Amino acid sequence: MHARPALALLISLIFTCYPAYAGHHGDAQRGAVLAEKCEGCHGGNGNSRIDGFPNLANQKYFYLVKQLREMRTSAQGRTGVIDKPEHDYSELLRQRRSNEIMDAFVFNLTDKDIEDLAAYYSREPCNAKSDGAVLTAPQFDIRCQVCHGERGIASNRNVPNIAGQDAAYLEQQLLNLKGASENDGAQKRRASIMEGQVRHLSEQDIRDISLYYSRLPCR
Questions:
Q1: 96: which residues sit within 8 A by CB, 6+ positions away?
Q2: Which of 2, 82, 205, 206 has the least C-beta neighbours within 10 A?
Q3: Model confidence pLDDT, tens digit, residues 96-124
Q4: How far is it, in rounded angstroms, from Cα 80 to Cα 129?
């Protein structure tokens, strides 16, 4: 009875997660120089050693570009550089990547800076190491596989790899998405596909799936 709606959802996810391909840009050598300012949190080569901060090494180029551009937009909007009515700005924060810790680092980045940083990190080898053995996949892992791949390595340029990602970071992002889906909070991450997937997960579910992906090999 529920097979058709489930199939329709799966097809919708597939088409959303697999848009048309575009070229790769960016100067990785210049990006390496720019990335020196990022070492404190993200590690010398994008492999963070601080709980709660994401690993950037071997991450998708286009995903990094998108995130950095949206964080820059939010940073500029928060300080009044973007001339928008207050209600429009609140909507911007809800719909885009927003992180006040990153504001000072992304505020003055040019599009070229962002492309070069993304080129550098996307080409760095991921060396993240887990503190424990690989776990059995939670039953609801099937929800993640359509976009993020069976083992957390996405084939789509716009979808982040989550294998080997910091567990605390993954958990916080999922909790933010769940919170946004429940209360439409002004400064939460917004992604309609993800919100639909995490809405019915418990905090323990989120903790389990974050730990599971954090222990998968990142390459």
A1: 70, 71, 73, 74, 190
A2: 2
A3: 566 778 988 999 999 999 999 999 999 99
A4: 41
Give me the phi and psi of 182, to 5 degrees please: -90, -40
Q: What is the dihedral of CA 155, 144, 98, 87, to 10 degrees?
A: 110
Q: pLDDT tens, 204-218? A: 999 999 999 999 998
This prediction has a pTM of 0.80
Across the range 3-12, mean pLDDT stands at 48
Set out the domains of the chain in order of their start, with CATH numbers.
Answer: 24-127 (1.10.760.10), 128-219 (1.10.760.10)
CA-based torsion, 46, 47, 53, 59: positive or negative: positive
pLDDT at 11: 45
DSSP assigned state of 72? H
| Cα atoms in the 13 Å half-sphere on the side-chain side of 195 | 16
Q: How far is CA 181 from its chain centroid? A: 17
Distance spanning both ends of the chain, measured CA to CA:
40
Alpha-carbon distance values, 173 to 6, 110, 157, 178 (Å) = 25, 26, 20, 9
Q: Give Cα 161 distance to the centre of its chain.
A: 8
Tokens 């810790």 correspond to 101
CB 54 within 8 A of CB 169: yes
Query: How far, rounded to the nearest angstrom, does the alpha carbon of residue 80 sit from its chain's CA centroid?
Result: 26
Distance CA 3, CA 11 (A): 12
